[in-house]
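Q: Start with the shorter request: fold the first protein.
A: Done. Sequence, then structure:
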Amino acid sequence: MQKPEQLRTGSRIAVVAPSFAADLDTAGEAAESIREMSFIPVLFPSCHASFGYFAGSDRLRASDINRAFLDPSIDGIFCLRGGYGAARLLPLLDYHAIRTHPKVFMGYSDVTALHLVFQQRCRMVTFHGPVVRELKQADSFTRRSMLCCLCTPGPSTLSCDDRQPLQCLSVRPGRFSDGPFSPGASISPAEGILTGGNLTTLCSLLGTPYEPDTRGKILFLEETNEASYRIDRMLTSLALSGKLGQCAGILLGSFTDCPDSTAGQGRTFSLEEVLRDRLCLPKLPVFFGLPCGHGKQNLTLPLGVRVRLCPADTSVHVTEPCTRSDTSSTVRRTSFPDSGSDAQAPPSHQRKP
């Protein structure tokens, strides 16, 4: 798996909008947030464009991504926001160009579609982390996690708030359907490439040429604003397609604003009951409680690297570097643009191919 070069002070960050449109204030705040991290923001055209609810046409949004990877002055690529629309770009991306110019690429939610395809078609490590429009309100945990992941190459342990440690779902009782799971069964550590992202986006790619490959991998899932029965339906789709049975382990992030569902006579299943029922397979480690996704804290995850799930101490270890450090490289610019003159990506007809 290809590793991008780590970011440094003065790294130039392309900001692209692969999904929903954002207003002008959002783009300006995004640039300011990047400058506060000692990076140089370069706003690509999709940040200011709109086409219905999208940030410009599919062709424009795909072109921004392709050009950001090809541009030798760009060191990393951050997504402005999520929403919907990234999957529409998959047939329009230049995978050869992206594969031969690996760079830090970060976002989450709808950006899951891009993470999956870059991992599978480009064999490239990417980063499930905050979108730029959320950086201004991000807490110190979220910012620290992001900078540690993008700016230091070494292996690490994925940590969470000490007040809410990870829990191992697989060893807890409470299944509500018949099956082979035995509460208290011995669960061994599992190791594999980390993949996944937003549950809805991931499931939307099932049955397409871009569907996720979970064979022998650690599958990460997070979600927001979905009732428990809808999560049940999506997890069932993953199970019926064989994706869950092929995993080496499962890592659950934030499931925010996912209310219990009620049916006839007020009967319901809680979110935890659904997760336990759908995910607790024999000898499969399932961890939950990682502060990653749509919650108040958003831990940055390196996708495409090997991680190890250890049920004995509910820890997740990244067992290899997620970036590379090229000591021969130099930062092209060390001074930032004036506060009122953010760098802009030139229009496509003015740029070299």
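Q: Next, the second protein, separately.
A: Sequence, then structure:
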Amino acid sequence: MTENRKPLPKNLIILAAAAILLAVCAFALGSWFGNRQDSIGEPEAKAIALSHAQVAEEELTGYSFEKDTKKDVSVYDVAFTAGGYDYEYRLSAATGDIIKYEKKPDQDTTLAQPTQGEAVDEEKAREIALAHAGLSEGDISGYTCKPDVEDGVQVYDIHFRAGDLEYEYEIDPSSGSVRKAETELFDAVQLPPDAKDGKPAAGVAAPSGSPVGEDGAKAAALSHAGLTEGDIFGYTCKLDYEDGVQVYEIDFHAGEYEYDYEINAATGAVLKADKEWEPSAAQPAAGAAAPSGSPVGEDGAKAAALSHAGVTEGDIFGYTCKLDDEDGIQVYEIDFHAGEYEYDYKINAATGAVLKADKEWEPSAAQPAAGAAAPSGSPVGEDTAKAAALSHAGLTERDISGYKCKLDYEDGVQVYDVEFKSGGYEYEYKIHAADGIVLKSEKDRD
């Protein structure tokens, strides 16, 4: 007996075939993306780093490897020591490309001292750096050298580039010794959208290699920010060097924002652009304005700070004010306490604008300690300052050890610096010398 089976409907066969095909594609794509994410492993990453450093496996005296993620990109961090140098590499796990590279002398290795004992000038310092790097004059570009002070020692700070590497040296001018030698893979600056490919901002082009001038750099920054001359205040500009490239560093405020720019001095390209919300810097306080370029005076600056803080003369104590220079701008630095808060202000001395405002909770600064009052302007004495600190800490003379006290000045105000230990903790106090107020208190595990 023969069974008559009905054939499957054609559309059902097509659907089944499509489902199988989709599953195969999904598996293939998943495998492809997975392999693409990490197409190399540790052995390959290590080999790439060693090859770039021209170091053999047997030369290694230290090695570490770590997989990490930076900005959603999988990377390998490879570090090793060989021949008296520490090497650090960061490679893309997907392609093996070297993202970052640094080479510096091992801390246990003494750097070469080519002219130990001889005083050297800038030219000799340059020769020493090139000899240490194994390079000649014709190999390098972007060379800069400037006298500087590092850790209290005068040095020549030297930068240059050769190939894809950037070199930084510190040479001691008194002996010619190499105090610091670092090498990093040179990263091209990531330009903002308005300055792709390093091209000048609109209207600021200049002959190749010729500075655009401050006016051109300012125009480039304002154009990038979408602002006009009339929108900004607190403008500063200085010509400087960044990684061997001459740049204009431009800062200004507009509305409730602070803008920082670096403009290529040769092309007008925007190399760096930062914009931060600074609501404290919005506008000059009412009544604090003065003729352009003319100081508002301490009284005007104080009025601007008090107005911004919403307090009156009678509400504050511990007031200090000094005239200072901040990035070429004259400012009044004003500090005071009110209630349980400490206020720090920077007021533009020419306009009365509030350039900076900080408010911190300082409950320890609320009122003078009991019994610590003294005639206005005269020191309360060390015993009273000590009593104020102990009272605030809830301790007695017998509870403490390692007591120290000295009379000092803090921002023009005479204070007692009081320190002691108790119960596994270290206490530090600043006591206002004139009235015994606790201006600052810290308690840390000893």
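Q: Describe the second briefly.
A: The chain has a mean pLDDT of 76. The longest strand covers residues 60-70.
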